[in-house]
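Give me structure tokens for this 295-residue protein.
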Amino acid sequence: MLTGFVTDVGRKLAERWAGAVVLPGLLFTCALAAGVTLRQGHWSDVGLLRHRLTGLSSGSGSTRTAVLLLGAIAASFAAGLVADALSGPYERALLGSWPWPLGGAAGALTRRRRRIWRERDEACRRARGEGEDAVRMGELEVRRNQVALVPPQCPTWTGDRLRAPAVRIRLEYRLELADAWPRLWLVLPDSTRTPLAEARQRLDETLRLGGWAVLYLLLGAVWWPSAAAGACAALVAWRRGRERAEVYAELVESAVDVHLPELSERFDEETRPVRASLGPALTERFRKGAGPRRL
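Here you go.
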């Protein structure tokens, strides 16, 4: 039974590795070979590409073919590792953590988003004070929430969306999510963990697509069709990143809303339902005097 379990896990890992690294890496390796062969001057010369590749693979014996195949696989694997490494900078760009040369632009965008959010939030407050009907109030709140669910602190929508659960949970329960989350994760049932893990995996896949987009854009310096493909991949990654960040953030906040009473029972049996005054006590207990941490 144990052997079968190990075999099944190994098969699933191999399939995931092939789908996430090898196949995209082979595609990029093909683009790299075409770009290095044709370059900008002959970017669409299919005949030249066929001639060069035929000359490269010509010759007798299976050794040369095996070496070329192994070289292609190695290049694909290396490209996958580079794309994974580039997904980190792409994530920081998507979340609005921009490097110092872009600090001024990031600050200007953040101030602009904050100003728009405050204007729309003030419109909601005025409408509420004037006794507007529910339909009108809903429209105004949707317009405000299109900017952010909480006062913006990032130059990008995705960055503010992923920080919103921590802010909203702090306001609702006076609880720091960064300190409570590791403990909460341990009490979550599989029916909650599985959607969370899958949502995070889909978000990570989008970030990896952003890494591939950067690779194709860099190859565009040699062969411009690669830059076009990279721009398309970056656009898709940006759009998917927004959608999947929305799903993941909503699941995180929902998990806290639904299962925080279970966590509180582990530390105080008299705190169901959760009271706002419980948050500071749990936060201090989780921190153990170490102070706040980043989520």
